[in-house]
Structures are given as structure tokens and as C-alpha cells.
Design brief:
The chain has one domain. About 55% of the residues lie in helices and about 10% in strands. The chain has helices at about 1-5, 30-35, 40-55; strands at about 15, 25. Strand 1 (about 15) and strand 2 (about 25) form a beta hairpin. This is Thioredoxin-like fold domain-containing protein.
Length: about 55
């Protein structure tokens, strides 16, 4: 089910989700390789922005 829902075509794959299951990025592995730990802050901020607008 997750494979279809998030269009997983290769393993490993890192999909970053908001608390409601909406995709922040489906390119988590690539972002970690390119930006290192800095990408985690971007993902947290993206999730928080969503919560502020939806709550």
C-alpha cells in the first residue's frame, strides 16, 4: 500500500511526510547526500508551516 501511495520504485527510498501524511519530499536520500543535516531543518520547517496554516 505504501509503495503505491508514495510511488516507490526503488529501495532504499526516503519519503519525508507531514504529520497528516502529505509528502514534503520524495527525494530524502538525495537531499541528505547533497545538503547533509541541513535538510532536516528544512523538513521540520515545512511541516511546521503546514501545521500553522491548517490548525
Amino acid at each position: 500500500e505504501l509503495k503505491r501511495r508514495y510511488d516507490i520504485t526503488a529501495i532504499p527510498r526516503l519519503v519525508i511526510l507531514r504529520p497528516n501524511g502529505e509528502v514534503i519530499t520524495s527525494k530524502g536520500r538525495k537531499q541528505i547526500r547533497e545538503r547533509g543535516l541541513a535538510c532536516f531543518q528544512n523538513w521540520v520547517e515545512a511541516a511546521e508551516v503546514f501545521q500553522n496554516f491548517s490548525g
